[in-house]
Amino acid sequence: MQTVTKQNSGGLRQWLTSNTPQSRFQARCGRAWLAWTKLTENHLAMIGLGIVLVLIILTIFAPVIAPYNPVAADLGNRIQPPSAAHWFGTDQLGRDILSRLIYGAQYTLMIVALVTITAAPVGLLIGTVAGYFGGWVDSVLMRITDIFLAFPKLILALAFVSALGPGLENAVLAIALTAWPPYARIARAETITVRKSDYIDAARLQGVSSSGLILGHIMPMCISSVVVRVTLDMAGMILIAAGLGFLGLGAQPPTPEWGAMVSEGRQFLLEQWWVSTVPGLAIFVVSLGFNLLGDGLRDVLDPRGGD
Amino acid sequence: MIEIENLNAWFGENHVLKDVSLKVAKNGSFGLVGESGSGKSTVLRTMTGLVDDWEGNIVVHGHELGPKRDKTFYRQVQMVFQDPFGSLHPRHTIDRILSEPVSVHKLGDSDRRVVKVLEQVGLNNSFRFRYPHQLSGGQRQRVAIARALILEPSVLLLDEPTSALDVSIQAEVLNLLAALRRDLGLTYIMVSHDLAVVAHVCDDIAIMNHGRIVERATASQLAQGSLEHPYSQQLYKAAGGYDRAVIDSFVDWD
Amino acid sequence: MRQDKLLSVKNLTVTFSTSKGPVNAVRGVSFDLGRERLGIVGESGSGKSQTGRAILGLTAANGSIAADEMQFHDVDLRNLSPRQWRKVRGARISMIMQDPKYSLNPVMTIGDQIIEAYREHHKVGTKEATHRAIEMLEAVKIRDPQRVFKSYPHEVSGGMGQRVMIAMMLIPDPELLIADEPTSALDVTVQLQVMAILDDLVRERGMALIFISHDLHLVSSFCDRVLVMYQGRVVEEIRASELDQAKHPYTQGLLNCLPKMDGNHNDLPVLQRQASWAEG
């Protein structure tokens, strides 16, 4: 086959798309660039990425962006409808909902980030070890996973939080404890498909140890599926965190956590709908954003997508 | 150099190798020919420790192999797999694929070794940081051969090294293998379904069917077509191309 | 034999749009086909499979077909609607792919799949269709057709699976069969047996056959005429019996680089590719 037209050339672009990289660094960048161009072709994923970026920006610049103090009560200004001064209105203590929303972004992001860095590696490790060794190791690890999977997530998280005591940190811990089993399952399934492949056998014949095989050869093949699953699960994590907040077991007042905000507004839902609806919409939009991004990443990262 | 005596192997209930014996001299090349399910690849996989359930004696370099292979074994014996698309890790660069064995065996000097072995298999340095998907089939198989060579083994086990390649690329790889054996004094055991390929590379040939060696021949005997066992004769005739009369004489060996 | 022209292809070009720009997989291929066995030979990337797929309109979604002519009897194969394609594919032109494992439905018995293929194009009852299906399995030399009829694809061997595929593709009685590497996943002896069955059926039914393969030697011993493709172009067209007089250096090179059973271990001649071959 022949390439008919030539690529428009630019220094950096050529460096990235070069078929003959000169260093490890260039090879890695080239690969990332390829994934990025593929992701940019997916418009929905870009919308998702945009939402996630907005969330991150809000987290970093909350004090600059937010027009009011999120926790300072102004009882003379209670439950105001949306207006030019308060775009999303005020709540039962007269606090500006927009400002609370902006400050709340950091809690949502923190929950998602903490759960991800605890649950995903644990699931990945348990799954790859079970899949690689098989036999009784597999049976023991997978039965433990099954026990965790057997409980509804929210109920299990509720149980953990009640035992640990309410609070955002404990809520994160509880969600992490309930979130890892699916990752272990995915990692195990992925491991079993690659375990028998020639390149694993080849590495074994080079004298690579079991731990070297799992960490260096098998995990890289599982990571993309797990990453995709994690982004898809983030929506669920946000909802569970919001649910715990709603039940008063997550963030404690006056923390502007979105789930807690929905909960606090529920008594005014019929007459002053915005108090609950606006944070509810924020949860919805961010969940959707993570879902869209996850879907896009799946298309880019799926090892079966072919290179 | 290599002596295998009465090798038997099982996959679960399946008895896949039945009393296989063979001997290869230093710098010799031995070919195993057979159709799928004949057990030819299993001989190599048993030698390298990829098959657990086996019995018999395997002696390499005067050392009898036990149930486990240690690192020193892998420095002596390396294997090249059939499918160059499946035997290279899709997420590792060529550089990583080649330097990993060097660090596992703590040989040091990995940069120089990688460059040297790439040169040995006829790839220049521009390939070093590519990923396998940026290479053609023939180039990948060269990388797979380089990976086997980087530990400087004395024995190469070749499992259908060219059957996934185009014929013009096959010729290049076969020439490369011949040159390496000459220059590095390697010993080969090659497995293939293709009589002509084995006859070209190997001096001694054994034909396998259903886990058993049914006939042994030298390359010159094969050239004359003087095979005795009816199964080997059938394989020999099949290599001649499409001939209606010959095909009608085929017998099923199931 | 060749006087009644079945298929005429002129200046066929298949272009794929990829992230690296458009790629021409097939470039200006022309040939006529009568009731004969035509071989298309080439290495990977030569465009041989894409030529076969283009005739059946099976080019992948990111590819486009252009041709001055693609005439199959009275049907212009360019720009057929999906409904019109259904009347051609399977009924008048059939295709056998490389690996039967991926072409057969794993959760349907072999018999049901053959019956379905038959009833797609013939309005007959189940009984008649069953009868025809068993007959067809006998025709592809399956010794116990009743048993195979009731089996699922995973219960039969690769060679048997490919026979089943042939039975399925030939039961609607197509006029042209395109076989894309139909035997390269099989052992040599099984491969030849399957080809013999194909040969018989094509002869008995007066069908035309396009046999696509990478194996020049095998194709030339089997077909009447061979097209040799290189980088999307036909570099040589030659009668199979005259292969040893091939003129194009690529064809000669392909023949020479095969290892021979002559007992010598000398280096094989290596193909020296020339840029001019791709220019045509």
UniProtKB/TrEMBL annotation, chain A:
GO annotation, biological process: peptide transport; protein transport; transmembrane transport
Entry similarity comment: Belongs to the binding-protein-dependent transport system permease family. OppBC subfamily.
Protein name: D-ala-D-ala transporter subunit
Top-level taxonomy: Bacteria, Pseudomonadati, Pseudomonadota, Alphaproteobacteria, Rhodospirillales
Organism: Thalassospira profundimaris
Aminoacyl-tRNA synthetase listed as a keyword: no
TM region positions: 44-66, 107-133, 154-180, 208-228, 235-253, 273-294
Cell compartment(s), UniProt: Cell membrane
Alphabetical keyword list: Cell membrane, Membrane, Peptide transport, Protein transport, Transmembrane, Transmembrane helix, Transport
InterPro entries named in the record: ABC_transport_permease, BP-dependent_transpt_permease, MetI-like, MetI-like_sf, OppC_N
From TrEMBL, chain B:
Domain of life: Bacteria
Subcellular location(s) of the protein: Cell inner membrane; Membrane
Keyword tags: ATP-binding, Cell inner membrane, Cell membrane, Membrane, Nucleotide-binding, Translocase, Transport
Record-level Gene Ontology MF annotations: ATP binding; ATP hydrolysis activity
Signal peptide: none
Record carries keyword Hydrolase: no
Enzyme Commission no: 7.4.2.10
Major enzyme class: translocase
Cellular component annotations (GO), alphabetically ordered: plasma membrane
GO biological process, alphabetically ordered: transmembrane transport
Location (main, coarse): membrane
Membrane topology: Peripheral membrane protein
Database matches in Pfam families: ABC_tran (PF00005)
Domain ABC transporter: 2-235
Catalytic activity: glutathione(out) + ATP + H2O = glutathione(in) + ADP + phosphate + H(+)
Record-stated family: Belongs to the ABC transporter superfamily. Glutathione importer (TC 3.A.1.5.11) family.
Complex formation: The complex is composed of two ATP-binding proteins (GsiA), two transmembrane proteins (GsiC and GsiD) and a solute-binding protein (GsiB).
Function: Part of the ABC transporter complex GsiABCD involved in glutathione import. Responsible for energy coupling to the transport system.
Name this protein carries in UniProt: Glutathione import ATP-binding protein GsiA
Organism of provenance: Thalassospira profundimaris
UniProtKB/TrEMBL annotation, chain C:
Gene3D superfamilies named among the record's database cross-references: P-loop containing nucleotide triphosphate hydrolases (3.40.50.300)
Gene Ontology MF term list: ATP binding; ATP hydrolysis activity
Name the record gives this protein: Peptide ABC transporter ATP-binding protein
Domain ABC transporter: 9-256
Keywords: ATP-binding, Cell membrane, Membrane, Nucleotide-binding, Transport
Record's bilayer topology term: Peripheral membrane protein
Organism superkingdom: Bacteria
SMART domains named in the record: AAA (SM00382)
Keyword Cell membrane: yes
Family of the protein in this entry: Belongs to the ABC transporter superfamily.
Location relative to the cell: Cell inner membrane
Coiled coil ranges: none
Gene Ontology cellular component list: plasma membrane
